[in-house]
Design goal:
Layout (H helix, E strand, L loop, with lengths): L1 E6 L7 H12 L4 E7 L2 H13 L3 E8 L2 E8 L2 H6 L19 E5 L9 H16 L7 E4 L14 H9 L3 E5 H6 L10 E3 L1 H10 L2 E3 L2
Parallel strand pairs: 1-2, 5-6, 5-9, 6-7, 7-8
Antiparallel strand pairs: 2-4, 3-4
Helix pairs in contact: 1-2
């Protein structure tokens, strides 16, 4: 399978979207397209491009100024559908798709009843969250929720994708320490209770699954 890398580091929208669209249109066989950018807004817009083309995509923050969006082009018809845009079809640049919503997760299993079912529901909730038209500004994990943003979690890819798009991922440091997970944190940052309270009090809306 082909692997195509698009270097859009240092470029502002719509250039990363234009480059990604052109590369998709030029792919001659199924494969993977990697788009490298240096800002969250570019990640958001390239991700929206992939979703609009029906392509499976994930994104990851490598460091503060380096993000990579990976698209899976499983069949040529999908790639050809992503041919370079004409003057009548200009790429749309959305300034920022995050709203001032904070999501708080305090358990690894969603709802009461069977824990295995609850973990499946939580995985589905986080995935659905990552697919929203407007992403939350912050996701806070505490107590049992501290088991989710760590190594081996089934939700890591979705959380990393949201982080790359500018979503702030915070996990209670006291909780990580209590469960012996501090060294296993794999996405986001450690937060203290003052920061958690500050984020919640400044939010326009708080969602708790």
């Amino acid at each position: 399978m082909a692997k195509v890398i698009v270097d859009a580091l240092g470029e502002q929208c719509p250039i990363p979207v234009v480059k990604a669209t052109k590369a998709l249109g030029e792919m001659k066989e199924p494969g993977v397209l990697e788009v490298h950018v240096d800002n969250e807004i570019a990640v958001q817009n390239v991700t929206r491009l992939a979703m609009g083309k029906g392509l499976a995509a994930k994104s990851e923050k490598l460091d503060d100024r380096h993000f990579v969006i990976t698209m899976e082009v499983s069949a040529l018809p999908e790639a050809k559908a992503a041919a370079p845009q004409t003057e009548d079809s200009e790429p749309v640049c959305v300034p920022d798709i995050r709203n001032n919503t904070v999501v708080v997760i305090d358990t690894a299993a969603m709802g009461r009843g069977d824990d295995e079912l609850g973990r499946t529901l939580m995985k589905g909730f986080i995935y659905a969250l990552s697919q929203l038209e407007q992403l939350p500004r912050t996701i806070i994990f505490y107590n049992g929720g501290a088991h989710i943003p760590v190594e081996g979690s089934v939700s890591l890819e979705d959380l990393k994708s949201m982080e790359a798009q500018g979503v702030e991922i915070l996990t209670c440091g006291t909780c990580l320490n209590y469960y012996g997970l501090t060294e296993k944190l794999a996405v986001g940052q450690i937060a203290n209770m003052y920061t958690i309270v500050e984020k919640l009090s400044a939010a326009d809306k708080v969602i708790k699954p």
